[in-house]
Design brief:
Elements: E1 2-7, E2 16-20, E3 37-38, E4 44-45, E5 53-54, E6 92-93, H1 101-118, H2 125-141, H3 148-160, E7 175-178, H4 185-200, E8 208-211, E9 223-224, E10 234-236, E11 242-244, H5 249-257, E12 272-275, E13 282-284, E14 293-295, H6 303-307, E15 310-312, E16 316-317, E17 321-324, E18 327-329, E19 334-335, E20 338-339, H7 340-349, H8 357-363, H9 375-393, E21 398-399, H10 401-419, H11 426-429, E22 453-457, H12 477-498, E23 500-506, H13 511-523, E24 528-533, E25 547-553, E26 581-582, E27 589-590, H14 596-604, E28 636-643, H15 652-663, E29 667-668, E30 673-676, H16 681-699, H17 706-713, E31 725-729, E32 742-748, E33 757-764, E34 778-781, H18 787-796, E35 807-812, E36 820-821, H19 832-839, H20 848-857, H21 861-872, H22 874-884, H23 888-894, H24 902-908, E37 915-918, E38 929-940, E39 948-951, E40 970-975, H25 980-996, E41 1003-1009, H26 1019-1027, E42 1033-1038, H27 1049-1056, H28 1058-1066, E43 1071-1077, H29 1078-1095, H30 1100-1112, E44 1116-1121, H31 1128-1148
Parallel strand pairs: 6-22, 7-8, 20-21, 23-24, 23-25, 25-28, 28-29, 28-30, 40-41, 40-43, 41-42, 43-44
Antiparallel strand pairs: 1-2, 1-3, 4-5, 8-19, 9-12, 10-11, 12-13, 14-15, 16-19, 17-18, 17-22, 26-27, 31-35, 32-33, 33-38, 34-37, 35-36, 38-39
Helix pairs in contact: 1-2, 4-12, 7-9, 8-9, 13-16, 14-15, 18-19, 20-21, 21-22, 27-29, 28-29, 29-30
């Protein structure tokens, strides 16, 4: 039969016959270059000498064919096999200096092709530009420097390509420490100690590699003379016997020559011999607290205790050379964890190692006189049982050889599928115990060498010539002790400098950004943090991150903030392939180009279609992932979500980010934190920040004072001090842009004596290009504070500048000489009145930090104590804020002994945020104007007995616009002021009918209000629009009218439009728009889901999936208000839920 392959990257046609197999030789496939083909072979077998039977071949092309960067020499040839050699010449690196330019350049090109290809950016602009940089560096210097991301990628792939390693399934979890800035042996020792401390992790071992500077022309190498970072000494006795480990006799003698005083024990940890370029090696004993050892005990045999065996927990190979893109790193210690038989069989039982087998068998009273008793096998099994048992009792990571074999088989399967091959050395991968009981024993494997890779090196003492004299002065004990002391002290600081933390935020109002900056200040003391907005962050970078912290809000009914949803516009810079997602009713998969938020969006959208309003995620629908996902993450992460329990999907987007990072392989170091803006958000964030800082320090073995650091960062006293802030006169007054949008009038939409007020505001735009809009858009308005409130507050300022004088705030820099300067001003130079009127928020209740700051200024001891309690007791603060809802002026009136310095007000008060309103006009119908429908909200705090407050509230939905196809049916649902954007819809359709001759539109309006006599705003306009064909049908429900049954918009949909809703949405590509408060929107969503399930004869879950698809296609639109004071019942209910949740979180912790 013919074996056929499907060639890849060649000019050969498919199914080209490569080799004919006969029934004598069976299936044989040779001479196939794994770089060129992805093999897919039909399976043949024989039954009883008859004709061969065949299964049909299944062609499975490799998505990422294995790349061989040039010809690689292997030990074997056509006449002989040298696969069992320990150190074949071809796997050893000769110390001949760096490669020549001609040899280095093609290897660098291959590596960059592999690197950018892994991100689906091969041949992109970024790839081309980077290749040009490398070529220029090689031409000018003879070498080049890897970027940090390239170094991490190369180190991980060197482990992935290590043919002799069984544990490679964890290759992408490798922690890479970049020590290329190292300059001395002392710094090397500090980095090595850091590595051991991190990797040991109190017994919960973690894979890690530390990479020292690369081999460079004209300079010696950085070398670690030890074969492993931790290893026991071996001493040759006068009688020829050996005490300790025979494998280290030579190194032990070398250490003694360089000043080590051996204790002559059986398990003495060797010191490190570290060598900087062109220097003699230096001796560094390891601090005992760094070396975790495990005493070997058996669960039932007491004789093991008598033998006094023990072994070190961390296997850390330190004599291999790391090769990445032609660059060589002679010092790159690498550590993982043990397979039990490595210790039990090789280290203890091998004749050339500790050789305890005979002694153990005799203690077990086995018959050692004949091999027929299998005493060796019995003793070896018990030794392995003892090793596994001892490590488990000591809670130290270890894996048995059966589990290791199964994990390798899984890795082999993954690699064959993912990249078409997996270099594997059968001799090394088959465990030294159990033989054919291991699945690896029966697996045919192919061994070849890929780059990046690890290579063996000659022991340095065999070729090194000491500088100056052949005798090296022995170091005194004091010198060695001092070196250890200094290194131990610096270890945590060096670790901190190397661990980078990426803090990502997504925010609508800026609060997430502020929290992210606070988190950065906290982590600065120990880590190297950077803060990035999600729309600036390339999700591909996640693969190379070490620590990722996410602070994000949730916008509207579970959507991401706007700056978290911007798609990457890469152009020629390449396309980012993310996880494919499948539409619920489509067999095809689509690929997306997206930022982090885009990557999360497809995950969380499925969560929000459940009938249940609970915050749980029981209905979470996981995405189906193809066989070519993003590479698994190796980073640690934690997420903090900001939200409001006024919305049914509390912190939904943050939960999606948290879940997605875990799905992609990240390790969560702390459960997700939640901050409710209705109750205790500030305190929740502080608690989470302290906890995640402590968890990060423990994860990366960094010594710090997290409580002290957190207290300092979250203390407002450090951000403002009276003697460090002053006002200075600015000679240029604030340049106001007058007349950009002037008020053209206001019209009340309710009768004069009505208890509530809704007005139509008309703004003249003057046809400015910046104010062009489409029906359904929103207008952001920066409100001005009440002049009366500003005037009263100005009277409380203790040091106001002269009226009308333009000022700015200067800060005194720390130092020997006084130096006042303006640091990152939040406000432009302006008068104090302008700042309080247009820029600063003086109506929102002061935060706990501001109260803490005011407490330091209080002159009355009782007021000071009360303010301190409010600033520290989260529950007390929340009750006070909710009951009084005080403005800044009311707080100052409650605590009259508190002065208010002008510099404090200008630097510590929050900034005013814009309010967004639905535009209720169409540009064609009202050129040069913008109409807003505004509900004038006012309320009394303190259970209706406090001062009168005013509020505005709205959110912003960027996709709330009419469909491009005017014939598409539209269903508009909006009770009360939710009708505002729909006014622009029917005006636009009416303008198109009258001016462009378009046919009547199919637009159904579902409106709800309280009373038929007083609350039908725009009633005459609606009737006119219906008569002229802009509205095809109008349904109105009244909730508090004695002449009509209580009816809500949900009831109208269910009773009068059930069949039409299904017809429009499922069969006619229609659109549905919902505008109003969150409670109504949730009820409408549930009603629509029930309608689709009933009319479409589907399950509720299927109806939810269908709504998710409509949302993804922008055919189900929501413009949702948050918490309003429209009813005391709603406000109190949500507040009660939020307060109960906050109390529970404070008791249970994050």
């Amino acid at each position: 039969e013919e074996i056929r392959i499907k060639p890849w990257g060649t000019g050969l046609p498919p199914n080209t016959p490569i080799r004919r197999a006969t029934d004598q030789e069976g299936l044989c496939l040779v001479g196939i270059d794994p770089q060129l083909v992805r093999i897919s072979v039909g399976v043949f077998w024989w039954e009883g000498g008859g004709q061969p039977k065949a299964s049909p071949p299944v062609w499975t092309p490799c998505s990422r064919p294995l790349l061989l960067p040039g010809p690689q020499e292997v030990p074997c040839n056509e006449r002989r096999c040298l696969a069992s050699l320990m150190f074949p010449r071809q796997l050893c690196s000769a110390p001949e200096g760096p490669r020549a330019k001609e040899e280095l350049l093609p290897l660098a090109r291959d590596f960059l092709r592999l690197y950018y290809g892994s991100m689906k950016r091969a041949e992109s602009q970024a790839h081309t530009q980077r290749l040009q940089e490398v070529e220029q560096q090689i031409a000018e210097t003879g070498t080049y420097q890897l970027l940090e991301a390239e170094l991490i990628f190369g180190a991980k792939h060197a482990w992935r390509n290590a043919a002799r390693c069984m544990g490679r399934i964890q290759w992408n979890k490798l922690q890479v420490f970049d020590a290329r800035d190292c300059t001395s042996a002392q710094e090397m020792f500090t980095s090595v100690c850091t590595h051991i401390n991190y990797a040991t992790n109190r017994g919960n071992l973690r894979s890690a590699i530390t990479i020292f500077p690369q081999r460079t022309a004209g300079r010696g190498d950085f070398r670690i003379w030890n074969q492993q970072l931790i290893r026991y000494a071996g001493y040759k006795q006068h009688d020829g016997s050996i005490l300790g480990d025979p494998a280290t006799i030579e190194l032990t003698e070398v250490c003694a020559q360089y000043g080590w005083r051996p204790p002559f024990g059986r398990f003495d940890v060797l010191p490190l011999l570290l060598q900087a370029p062109d220097e003699d090696p230096e001796l560094f004993p390891l601090p005992p607290e760094l070396v975790l050892e495990v005493p070997i005990r058996h669960p039932t045999l007491k004789c093991f205790e008598e033998m006094g065996l023990r072994w070190y927990a961390l296997p850390a190979v330190s004599n291999l050379l790391l090769e990445i893109g032609g660059l060589e790193f002679p010092a790159a210690p690498f550590s993982g964890w043990y397979v039990g038989c490595e210790i039990g069989m090789r280290d203890f039982c091998d004749a050339q190692r500790y050789n305890v087998l005979q002694d153990l068998a005799e203690r077990m009273e086995l018959d050692t006189r004949t091999t027929l008793s299998l005493w060796k096998d019995k003793a070896a099994v018990e030794m392995n049982v003892a090793v596994l048992h001892s490590f488990q009792v000591a809670k130290v990571t270890i894996v048995d050889h059966h589990a290791a074999g199964e994990s390798f088989m899984k890795h082999l399967e993954n690699e064959q599928r993912m990249r078409g091959g997996c270099p594997s050395d059968w001799v090394w991968l088959v465990p030294p115990i159990s033989g054919s009981l291991s699945p690896v024993f029966h697996q045919e494997l192919v061994n070849y060498q890929l780059s990046p890779c690890f290579r063996y090196q000659t022991d340095p003492w065999k070729t090194y010539i000491p500088k100056g004299t052949t005798v090296t002065r022995k170091k005194t004990f004091r010198e060695i002790a001092n070196a250890v002391k200094i290194s131990a002290k610096l270890m945590g600081h060096v670790m901190a400098r190397r661990v980078k933390a990426t803090i990502l935020y997504a925010s609508e109002t800026g609060k997430s950004r502020a929290y992210a900056l606070n988190l950065q200040q906290l982590f600065k003391s120990t880590f190297a943090p950077q803060v990035l907005c999600m729309d600036e962050y390339d999700v591909v970078s996640l693969e190379h991150e070490t620590l990722v912290l996410v602070v994000t809000s949730t916008f509207g009914n579970g959507d991401p903030p706007e700056n978290g949803e911007v798609l990457l516009q890469r152009g020629q810079d390449g396309t980012l392939r993310t996880l494919p997602r499948k539409a619920p009713y489509s067999p095809t998969f689509t690929m997306a180009t997206t930022t982090l938020c885009g990557l999360m969006r497809s995950s969380y959208k499925m969560r929000f279609n459940s009938i249940s309003q609970s915050d749980s995620f029981k209905g979470y629908v996981y995405l189906r992932v193809l066989s070519d996902p993003l590479p698994g993450l190796s980073c640690r992460f934690s997420v903090f979500g900001l939200g409001s329990r006024a919305y049914p999907h509390f912190c939904a987007f943050a939960h999606a980010v948290d879940t997605r990072l875990e799905e992609l392989g990240g390790e969560r170091i702390l459960p997700m934190g939640e901050g409710d803006e209705l109750c205790g958000q500030e305190e929740a964030f502080r608690t989470w920040a302290r906890s995640v800082f402590k968890a990060a320090c423990e994860t990366f073995c960094v010594e710090s004072l997290p409580e002290a650091a957190a207290t300092e960062v979250f203390s407002t006293r450090c951000s403002w001090k009276r003697h460090r802030h002053r006002l200075s006169v600015h000679h240029n007054p604030l340049d106001l842009l007058a007349g950009r949008a002037s008020a053209g009038g206001g019209q009340s939409l309710y009768p004069p004596l009505h208890s509530r007020s809704t007005i139509l505001v008309q703004l003249q735009t003057g046809d400015h290009p910046e104010l062009r809009y489409q029906p359904g858009d929103h207008l952001g308005i920066f409100p001005a504070n009440s002049p009366e409130l500003v005037e009263d507050l100005l009277e409380r300022i203790e040091d106001p500048p002269p009226p009308g004088e333009t000022v700015t705030v200067e800060t005194l820099e720390a130092g020997m000489h006084a130096n006042w300067k303006v640091e990152n001003p939040r406000l432009p130079p302006c008068t104090l009145r302008q700042a309080l009127s247009f820029f600063l928020d003086i109506t929102t209740p002061p935060s706990p930090q501001l109260l803490q700051l005011l407490a330091t200024l209080a002159e009355d001891p009782r007021e000071k104590e009360t303010l301190q309690r409010l600033s520290k007791d989260a529950l007390l603060y929340e009750e006070w804020k909710w009951f009084r809802c005080p403005t800044l002026l009311e707080v100052l009136e409650e605590f009259p002994s508190v002065p208010l310095p002008a510099s404090l007000a200008l630097t510590q008060l929050p900034l005013l945020q814009p309010r967004y309103y639905s535009i209720s006009s169409a540009p064609g119908a009202h050129p040069g104007q913008v109409h807003l429908t505004v509900a004038v909200l006012n309320y009394h705090s303190q259970n209706g007995k406090g001062p009168l407050h005013y509020g505005v509230c709205s959110t912003w939905a960027p996709n709330f616009q009419l469909p491009q196809d005017p014939s598409a049916p539209c269903i508009l649902v909006g009770p009360g002021t939710g009708i505002a954007p729909f006014r622009s819809f029917w005006q636009q359709r009416l303008h198109e009918i009258e001016t462009e001759g378009l046919p009547s539109s199919e637009m159904t309006l579902v409106f709800g209000c309280r009373s038929s006599l007083h609350d039908q705003i725009y009633e005459e306009e609606i009737q006119e629009a219906q008569q002229k064909g802009a509205l095809s049908r109008v349904l109105t429900g009244f909730s508090r009218d004695p002449d009509y049954p209580k009816t809500y918009v949900q009831d109208l949909l269910r009773m009068s439009l059930s069949g039409y809703v299904f017809e429009a949405l499922c069969r006619r590509q229609g659109h549905m728009y919902v505008c109003g408060d969150v409670t109504m929107a949730t009820g409408v969503l549930q009603t629509v889901q029930q309608i689709l399930a009933k009319e479409g004869k589907m399950a509720l879950a299927e109806a939810g999936d269908l709504i998710s698809e409509l949302r993804d296609k922008n055919r189900y639109h929501e413009d949702i208000f948050g918490l309003t004071f429209r009813t005391q019942e709603v406000a109190s209910r949500i507040r009660s839920q939020s307060f109960t949740s906050h109390r529970r979180s404070l008791l249970m912790g994050p």
